[in-house]
Amino acid sequence: MDLVGLREYQPGDDVRYIDWNVTARMDAPWVRRYAEDRDLTAWFLLDLSPSVDFGTLDSARVKRTVLIDFVTTLARLLTRRGNRVGAILYDTTSQRTIPAGSGRLQVLRLVDELMREPIPTAGPMTDLSPLLEKAGQAFKRRSLVFLISDFICQPGWERPLDSLSRRHEVVAVRLLDPREVRLPDMGPLIMEDAETGEQLYVDTHDRGFRRRFEAAAASREQATAQAFKRAGVDALALSTDDDLVRAIVRMSSLRRRRRR
User: Fold this and answer.
1) Residue 66 resides in a domain
2) Residue 9, SS3 per DSSP
3) Which domain, by its residues, includes 67?
4) Into how many domains does the chain fold?
5) What CA–CA distance (Å, rounded) separates 176 from 127?
6) Domain assignment present for 97
7) What is the per-residue pLDDT for 28?
8) How many CB atoms lie within 10 A of CB 119?
């Protein structure tokens, strides 16, 4: 990497790049800037399958809303430093690429495309493998990749994720809703699979059923976390009841710790 200059330290900067001589003279932390820092490309791999339209909060905030808010905020933060951002939109049956670009207009384009993306109807269960494989083929230069999904999908995505993380810096952002991990006592009701349309009658008044539901959710969470760990990717859980700013701060803190 070629040194291109210095600038004052900003939260999230890699502490390894602090220039201690300049810091001592200026009485404030300064970091070295390298050519690579000026040309970062970030990609958003977006799972827009039917299951991301689930949400149980009174505010009607569904996982898709959280996804859009997260992409908008992060894209703006990245482009403010001159970086480029792009996205691949995936809805189980089709993929659409928004080429990487920089500046405020690129952020507005991302938001507009996401807001206009039609909500898919029930179909086959999500398979993330094609999305990850396309990214592995399309991204020629090393990039920062955000894989955003609820990971309610068919198995088999772990291998292409591992392959992608060997060439790129990958962050997995897992969307979730509190009712996907714990059910309240609401009595008998009909639950419907958002992706296949399959319906199931359950009695949430049954404590045994609620315990089994929570155990299955915990097992799924553990398996997903282990897959991220094996692939060596950073992971962020983003719930529909989360504060977005705090979640991004958590992600930044995690990445700083891993870099040390």
Assistant:
1) yes
2) coil
3) 39-259
4) 1
5) 17
6) yes
7) 84
8) 11
CA dist., res. 6 & res. 34, Å (int): 9
Distance, CA of 167 to CA of 142 (rounded, Å): 6
Secondary structure (3-state) at 202 = strand
pLDDT tens digits, residue range 67-103? 999 999 999 989 987 899 999 999 887 899 999 999 9
219's tokens: 């097992």
Cα separation of 71 and 67, whole Å? Answer: 6
What type of residue is 202?
Answer: V
Q: What's the burial of 71, exposed, middle or buried (CB within 10 Å: 0-12/13-18/19+)?
A: buried
Pairing of strands 95-101, 84-90: antiparallel
d(CA 257, CA 260): 5
Q: 230 lies in a domain?
A: yes
Q: Which sign, positive or negative, has the C-alpha torsion 172, 82, 257, 11?
A: negative
The two tokens of residue 121 are 């109807």
Q: What torsion do the CA atoms of 221, 42, 89, 76 make, to the nearest 10 degrees? A: 100
Evaluate if residue 26 carries a pLDDT over 50.
yes
Supply 163's token pair: 């392959």
Please report whether residue 229 resides in a domain. yes
- Residues 53/11, Cβ–Cβ less than 8 Å: no
pLDDT in tens, 110-165: 999 999 988 877 667 889 999 999 999 999 888 999 999 999 888 899 999 999 99
Dist CA 3 CA 34 (whole Å): 4
Contact between 48 and 120 under an 8 Å Cβ cutoff? The reply is yes
Which CATH number covers residue 164? 3.40.50.410
